[in-house]
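Quick look at the format.
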Amino acid sequence: MRRWLRLYGTVVGLGVQGALVYRWNFFARAVFGLLPLAATIWVWREIFAGRDGAEVGGFSFGEMVFYFVAVTVVESLVSPSNDEWQIAGDIREGRISAYLLRPVDYLTYRAGLFLSARLVFAGISLVPLLAVVAWLPGEARWPTDAVTWGVFAVALGLAAALQFLIAFVMATLAFWVLEISTLVFILYSFEYFLSGRIFPIEVLPEGLRTVLMATPFPYELYFPVAVGMGRMTGAEMWAGLAVQAAWVGAFFLLARWLWARGVVKYGAFGG
């Protein structure tokens, strides 16, 4: 166990050093990533203006502003950068041979690099994001008790794990498909609309919302934000956490299965 911690602790450390080389790229991404946030807030301002300020899905305009700022912050903490493309490149170009010959678990290795990149990107991007939080006229909604803070932290970690594992699963398709970009963009189209980036799930009809909450997409962004804002509490919060954990477990097993099948195919063709 100690050897395992030392090995993958070194991976995370090296990943942080490598990510710091691109710190100005991260900062530029964080700053220019505020442009979609500004556009989204402008669109919702017009929607609220057309309704004479009436609530939408239980949100006032100030709460809606805070929701999208929170989504942007959470996204910077949990979303992969280029992990699927790097993993697919390792498979397609044969670089995984070096890892298969060493006592290194590739999934854990990539998880360490993902964690290190998130640590660096979060540390850099939170500066402009928190400045926006302080400046925008949003109505802050924070957890009011220690239990909710704890559930929010767990939901945030599970959201990161879910997004990473989905990216890993998509990347392993490179064992069978020469170019995964089309599949990735199709998946990201669903994620973009159904994870809470464009609208909070509350604005949907109840039946559609119930169906959507059974899929993995809301648990990538919407669920931790809803918990953090106190919009999901009690039994609903615990049930959501259980569903989120179940999806993480399912994608972990799928990632392991696809990797094992892919490595067999890779070895059979002399990779």
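Next, a different chain entirely:
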Amino acid sequence: MGAVRKTIRVGAELLLTIGLVGLLLCVHQLYWTNFEAEAKANDALSRLDKEWSHLPPEEPTVAAPVVTPGVTPEPNTEAPPYEDTSGPGDTGLDGHKDGTKVKGADTVRGHEFAAIYIPRLGSGFRKPIVEGSSRDALARGVGHYTYPPYVGPGQVGNFGLAGHRNGHGEPFRYLNKLRVGDKVVVETGTQWFTYTILKGPYITKPSNGEVLGSQPPQLDVPQGSRLITLTTCDPEFKSTNRMIYWGTLTTTDPKQPGFKPAALKR
């Protein structure tokens, strides 16, 4: 009986230890990574604000799109969001590392270059947009896909963004609250771009790259449209599927002291 009791006690202690370790891992994933990511995001926004405060208004922050007249870029059919945990943390889904320049734009992967506002998710919702889709980039804000052809804020094509839904700052935790007609505002050093949500939530598989194309088959939009696509994992706490929202550019405003787009004045 003594040996049996000892075995039971040891087994119970092992199970308790395993349970505590699992609990600590969950706490780290869902809470501590949020603290780390929020600090990084705030630092990124501070750097942007400082940089923009010294930027001449006439100097663009995003390279002009290279689009042949009368031709719309082919849809991107590579796998969209959003997280590939098998590779290095500093390598995006397009295979390029953070710190490398993006072809077709004056930006560098892994660096913040814009900010996104989603009023539906709160009046204080402002997150940095980081170039690229690496795990490291997504842990500092909202990532921007750099699949060719490159599409920046306000440009012809599909400006595709990815954000975590749980942990790592979870900027898109409540993305499912968005409704058709809601506004999404993107801020650069010289301009404000206001997009209006056209459709969502649309649930699809991670391999469906058509959602990031210039004319997604799920939308009835003409060639030359200026779209935004927001992507995150679904269901919550899992990454089985992807939740997609699409919007179209409705307003472009130059940045001026004291000015904010109408969507941010509510």
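The domain at 34-264 is CATH 2.40.260.10 (Sortase; Chain: A;).

See the schema section for token definitions.
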